[in-house]
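Working notes for the structural subgroup meeting. M.R. asked for a predicted model of this chain before we commit to crystallization trials. I am recording the input and output together here so anyone reviewing the notebook later can reproduce the run.

Input as submitted:
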Amino acid sequence: MLVTTIARMKELIPVIVGSDFSKYETFIKEAREWLKHELIGSGLYNKLGDAGNSVLKEYCENVVANKAYLTGLPFFDLIETESGFAVTRTETKAPASPERVKALKEGIEKWLTEAIERLLEYLEENEQYHEDWKGSETYTLLTETYIHTLKEFRRYAPFSGSRLDYVAKLPAMLDVIHLKIEPVISPELSDAIIEELRDGDLGEPDKAILRNLRFAFANYVAGNDDVAHSYLMRIRKVLLGNPDAYPAFKNSALYENIQATVIAKNTDSKNIFRAGF
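Returned structure, recorded in token form:
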């Protein structure tokens, strides 16, 4: 079980005072489920209490505490009365301004983002967790694109949002892959690269285009279409220059259509030449 006492919450969220753990319990339970289903999977979650997993548990508790506090922040000073809601106050403490509450929320979002990225990096670097983590449906959903973490995404394009904002972008990311990138490199090659990235066994030819592919993908998501298109055309040039190195592309319907178009153009050119002669 993760984060079970007020003392542990105070260690992880320094702004907390008082001794009432019950006000956080509902949000902690929700955060535990979120961690399980969105980040590490049920199999690995159920092993967090095993011997030897103390470091992983520490990373997970940091995520849970920050997620719980962020979710509960709008409710911590509210109480329900018979006539509606009221804000709890004490005679000795002045209420925080909306600006300070906003700054606190942004700070917690930043802590949560950093906690998630550290957790994902730790899982990636420690192979003893790969069977449970990478074998889960959660991991499959986390790795549906060419870039798996927010920290990595920011190497290729600007993104000022939190990890939660990044997750909310996933439908747009999938749209970019299906509507912008696959029509240029083929769905088959795109799927092959995503699967190779999941398995950690990217082939040398795919490594050669991965950097440009990530730049194209990230900049499309960020709205920099002209920049993204330029990177995508670099990839297209490589694929057409050496299709044998990319069998997923060469054996695709896209490449077949490209070849048919080239043949048709050459035939038309010859016919025009003969007619003119």
